[in-house]
TrEMBL record:
It comes from the Eukaryota. This is LRC43 protein. SUPFAM superfamilies: L domain-like. The keyword Repeat applies. Keywords: Leucine-rich repeat, Repeat. It comes from Neopipo cinnamomea. The gene is Lrrc43. One of its GO terms (cellular component) is cytoplasm.
């Protein structure tokens, strides 16, 4: 579950170990928050000298320090470590859930967004890319969410997510999942996402361009849309039809929509017959290995009565 993965993540950060935490080394703990200090059994307070918070923070920030985080760590990691120095009582127990407004748990093997996530009472951004999530129960999502990123999971159904969706959500990332239309397109409307500005549906299995556009047109605040990697993106009039059908859109597939492009495709939305769900794909084979070369077979002599052996091969392409 996401809660279990978060607890394991906290243990890895070592928020209760030097130079973080409520240890005897933290001078601010000893002077201003003595009542919160809890020395663990067998911990010898005299081993470490008291340090100022500035000195402890320097140990976290200096890249040459053995306690420094890797340079590619997330801002979330650094924030929690520094809070554990400045106000260590805030990262003890359930209080840590009230510190974060952004939670990034990427490639942690998360399969379920459980009820414990509701403890993040101020959470605005939840990034859960590259996990193993197939269903999202919206009742377990904080209603304060503005960003929900679920790229590279196994989501194939949005019904549970749309039962009680976060009303203020501005970005929904569902790229590289298993969404198929038209059963899922009905959940991509303004009734469920009235404040959605950015939507990523790239690299799914969406095929019905006309049906999808009819649903997306109800998203009045939508300005950024990513659909590349879906079969419907192979339709020749794909980009032009979307540009003309969604006049408020500013960016499509990471490419800005300028006035010239809008003028170029003006009127295409009124010609749906040009956006048939068909595409022509040309495949050129540059090299094949493992197939016997017929010219290398021994040639039969003219008039020979030996049986002629023929071989046939076929190649399949799966998209």
């Amino acid at each position: 579950s996401l809660t279990a993965a978060f607890q394991e993540y906290l243990r890895h950060l070592g928020l209760q170990d030097f130079p973080c935490g409520l240890g005897s080394w933290n001078k601010s703990c000893l002077s201003g928050r003595r009542s919160h200090c809890r020395v663990q059994p067998r911990q010898e307070e005299a081993v470490l000298d008291e340090e100022t918070t500035e000195a402890l923070l320097e140990l976290l920030r200096d890249q040459h320090s053995p306690w420094a985080l890797p340079q590619d760590c997330s801002p979330q990691d650094q924030i929690l470590r520094e809070v554990a120095v400045l106000a260590p009582e805030l990262v003890y127990g359930s209080r840590v859930y009230r510190v974060l407004k952004s939670l990034r748990m990427v490639d942690k093997g998360v399969e379920e967004i459980d009820e414990g996530v509701l403890q993040f009472q101020q959470l605005e951004e939840l990034i859960l890319s590259a996990n193993q999530i197939s269903r999202i129960t919206s009742a377990n999502l904080p209603q304060t969410l503005k960003v929900l990123e679920l790229c590279c999971n196994t989501v194939d159904d949005l019904e549970d997510l749309c039962s009680q969706p976060p009303p203020e959500l501005q970005h929904l990332g569902l790229g590289h999942n298993g969404l198929c239309g038209p059963s899922q397109e009905k959940f991509l409307t303004g009734d469920f996402w009235p404040n959605l500005i950015s939507l990523d549906l790239s690299f799914n299995n969406l095929t019905d361009l006309l049906g999808l556009v009819s649903q997306l047109s109800s998203l009045q605040k939508l300005r950024i849309l990513v659909l590349q990697g879906n079969p419907l993106a192979l339709i020749p009039t794909y980009r032009g039809f979307l540009v003309d059908s969604l006049p408020k859109l500013s960016i499509l597939d990471d490419i800005y929509i300028g006035p010239d492009e809008r003028q170029q495709f003006h009127g295409l939305a009124r010609q749906p017959e040009l956006s048939r769900s068909e595409a022509r794909v040309v495949v050129s084979v540059g090299e094949m290995k493992g197939v016997p070369d017929p010219s290398a077979l021994q040639q039969l002599e003219v008039g020979s009565e030996a049986p002629v052996i023929t071989c046939s091969y076929f190649v399949t392409y799966e998209f």
